[in-house]
Every structure is written in C-alpha cells, then in structure tokens.
Amino acid sequence: MSNIRNRTLSIGQSALSPTNENTNLSGSNPQKTNWQKRLIQLAIQLTPLVVILLVWELGTGAFDIPKFIEPALVGKPSNIVQELKQLFLSGSIFQHIFVTFQEAMGGLFLAVTGGISLGIILAYSPSGAKITLPYVQVFNSLPRIALAPFFIIWFGIGLVSKVFLAALSAFFPIFFTTYQGLQSIDRELISAFQVMGANRWQMLYMVVLPSVISWVIAGIRTSLGMALVGALVAEYVGSTQGLGYLLMSAQGILNVDQAWAILVVLAVISVFLDWGVRALETYVLRWRPNPGEL
C-alpha cells in the first residue's frame, strides 16, 4: 500500500512540475521577451512626440499644406534638425556643452556634500533644527534667477559664480530628502539594536544606511536637474560660453530654430545624466542590506 502511495505521489509531482519542453514553449527566451517589452514601451512613449512633431511640421506649410503655424514664431522641426546638424558639424557646441556640464557637476558635488552633511547634523540635533530650518525655508523660497546677479557681482562671470549658483539650486532637494529620510527611520528598530549591544558603526551599516539611501538617491536625481538649471540661469545672466550663453545669443538674433536645437541638446544631456543616476540607484539598492538585516 505504501509503495502505491509513493508511486502515486511521484507521478503527481512529475505531472505538476513543468517539463523542460513546456518551459521552453512558455518562455523560450526571457531576455528576448524583456527586450520586446522595452521596445513596445519605448514605442508607446515616443508616439505622442512623433504625432506632435508631424503636426508641427505639416502646420508650418510642409508638402504644400496650407500653413496654420507661423515658423518664424515657433520654429520648424526640419529646420531644428538642420540647426543641430550645423552645430555639431562645426564643432562649436562641444566646448559649450563641456562648460555647462562642468558647472552643473561642480555645483551638484557641492550640493550633495553640503546637503547630506547638514541633513545628518540637523536630524540628530533637534535644537539645531529648530533654529536652522526656518532660515533654510526662507532661502529655498527665493527665486534662483533673482540671486544670479549677486553671484555674478561677487564672483565674476567665470566658472565660480556658475558653480555656486548651481550648488544653491541643487542643495535644497538633497538636504530635505536626507533630513526626511533620517527622520523616518524606525525608532523601535534602533532601540532593539541598542538593546542587543550594537555599536555605532553597526547601527550605521545595518539600520541608518539601508533606511536612508533610497531617500538620498531620490534627492540626487532631483538635484541633478536643479544643478543644470542653476548653471543655465547663471550663464543666461552673465557669461561668454556655455549652453545658456548660446541660448541667450539665439534669442538675441531671434533664431527660434537654433534656440530649439539648444533645448534639444539640453534635454538629451538631462536624459543621459538621469540614466546614470538610475544605474547608480540600481547598483546601490541591490548592494544595500535590508533594514535590520544581520
């Protein structure tokens, strides 16, 4: 009787478990399936953009269609492509890209260093937070473009003023996310580790870092865009090079197509920088232990 039962169980398990053939039929190439999903998602995301560009191009009188959009005011996609081609073939834009990138990354470095440091200090100093946070809120409410002339007056039109304005623009997102992340740490978990005799470094590695790292990465992603905006604003107010300077020059000669071309370059740079931060986020979040994991 027991032999029959064992044989029946083995047959049932083999029937329930998927065979190699069935597995190959159901998902013969998971990597290919993932790429197909990504391509479909990318096509869905790009469809509205393609439709807008097509209507825009046709509306400016392309293919002898009656014009209902004035290209002198809003530009024309085909002309924007020509401007992009001219900028890159001449090579003049690469120096401007490098200058803006240098300013934005320098400002981001200062903002991340200062924002994380101040966030940690105030999170562990309630009395200091009560004194400092109102001033932080006041400075955060000030428009960056209104502060740009002061930075130009104080530090000139060189690299330093652009870096400091980019740092000021990027400082607040990383500070607030770090501060809020530290405030959100489970106090009961901290108490439990203290009872178990965990030292300061063990607390930092097993509780603080896993709890706050996602907040910090989110703050860096936001600060990255703000640093780029801060650098552009500073270049727009006073500069002799950089993408903000090119944009101001295009505006001065009423070259709408060139202005759009520069904005396209900025958008591409922003996308690639965001991809870089996402890759960093994926790596860091995969590395980190779960909060409280021993």
UniProtKB/TrEMBL annotation:
Entry keywords, A to Z: Cell membrane, Membrane, Transmembrane, Transmembrane helix, Transport
UniProt organism field: Nostoc edaphicum CCNP1411
Family annotation (Pfam families): BPD_transp_1
Similarity field: Belongs to the binding-protein-dependent transport system permease family.
Segments traversing the membrane: 39-56, 104-124, 203-220, 226-247, 259-277
InterPro entries: MetI-like (IPR000515), MetI-like_sf (IPR035906)
GO biological process, one term: transmembrane transport
Keyword Nuclease part of the UniProt annotation: no
Keyword Endoplasmic reticulum belongs to the record: no
Membrane topology recorded in Swiss-Prot or TrEMBL: Multi-pass membrane protein
Protein name, entry field: ABC transporter permease
Any one of the GO CC terms: plasma membrane
Domain ABC transmembrane type-1 residue range list: 97-281
Subcellular location: Cell membrane
Residue span of region Disordered: 1-30
